[in-house]
Amino acid sequence: MVEKETSAWVAEKRNSLAIDCRSCAGLCCVSLYCAKVDGFPENKAAGVPCKYLEKDFRCRIHDSLQDRGLKGCMAYDCFGAGQKTTQIFRSRGDWKENPVISAEMFRVFHRIFQLHQMKWFLLEALALADAEGSKEEIRSLIGENEEITGIVPEEIGAYDIEPYRRRVNPLLKDVIRKKGGGFIKGSDNRDFTMAILIGSDFSKQSLGESLFLGADLRDANLAGADLSKCYFLTQMQINSAKGDQYTKLPSGLSRPQNWVPQEKSR
Ligand code: SF4
Ligand code: SF4
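^ thats the input. predicted complex w/ iron/sulfur cluster below
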């Protein structure tokens, strides 16, 4: 019997996907391939630490990322995979003090990232699905997701994610098709699934229950927009857009610091 969701159940699961960089060994800043053109400070290969990553895994230029135009760094969000992986490897150290585990640690990080991302979308789909049959299937996939991320590191690192993804994707598509198909033309609700919305102007618009799965919102203007009831938005999409203190976000997503006017230091 799969556990039924309550709002507290969903909130707890969403919260577990929030990043906690202070409890992480800087995994994104070392394990990912980065390109200057994508808003990172330099072109670097996966597995090479960023030149600004400090010994304690803090970013030396964190406070000036915006002034330096490092949009890639500002937008990145790992769905909580960083701190979880760091915790899993705690007894064996980290990639820096114990380099023999680095390849395995990065592999686990990437697997958990993919699984957590799917879990985020499944939680969204759960709120949207109308038939109890689909809800039961989504709950079961969420439970399975948690079982996989709970197995020992070597097994998660080697875990073939594709069969799981092949069951998740059609379900998400089906939920989106049913929801988007019911949208009335001219209403606030729109289906932006996989849409390229770079630089689009949504300022002060009410976006109703619009769907944003995989939409590219880089530099989209969300100032004063109401997205509070929208679905499939991620923190990374929000971080890559422009908004302000009046933008309304769905629960579980945070307002990026640079959207709020900072007090000038005297
Ligand atoms: S991997 Fe995630 S938790 Fe770790 S530093 Fe990067 S964003 Fe933060
Ligand atoms: S600049 Fe900072 S946030 Fe960006 S990759 Fe380097 S250490 Fe990480």
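The radius of gyration is 19 Å.
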